[in-house]
Amino acid sequence: MTNIAVPELRRYAPDMLRMVGIPLGQADETADMLVWTEAVTGGALRFLQTHRARLNWIPRPRPRVVTESPEKVVVDVRGGSLLEFGIRVFDFVCAETVAAGSRWVQVRNVYGEVFLPYLIARAAERGVHVEAGDGLAMAPSEESAGLTLQAMATDPAGAVLADPVYLDAVDCGIEIADDVFDSIIQLFEMLRVPTSERSRTHAG
């Protein structure tokens, strides 16, 4: 096992995410979700390692609203993951819920349930209580599935980054399996070449 400091992982995260296809403008906010999830519930970096090829699939899926009525909204993520699109989907859920008071949202063809706790906590921070229904059940292989969200406007909860488990990780670091650590360092180094005497003399 390797212990990594939370700030160090947060420094690596945007570049790692860019190497699995997350756009530059989205990588920073997605990095917060990746690091929080690894610190609080675990499994985020293993997800990145396992689904690296799938995340890099081109052309990339484009989620869209396929049904919208007073009863429910249906969002089709079209095979994308909650790592890529979870923040956008939950921002949409929050906007719909704040406007209506409560909302039932079905999300189709999505995978990456490991990121749900962060997304639910982030929505609560914004004053939207979200419960994921039984439709969330995903196959062990993490094939695309669906989830049902019941959302209700409420008072804002505490800040996501103030979670006691996260703060404990800030103090003590995060234990990561060696093979997972090696794979994320490889992703980081694909974009960032380590400094050497040769790179310094050839700079500029």
From TrEMBL:
Organism this protein belongs to: Nonomuraea cypriaca
InterPro entries, A to Z: Mal/L-sulfo/L-lacto_DH-like_sf
Protein's recorded name: Uncharacterized protein
Domain of life of the native organism: Bacteria
GO molecular function: oxidoreductase activity
SUPFAM superfamilies named among the record's database cross-references: L-sulfolactate dehydrogenase-like (SSF89733)
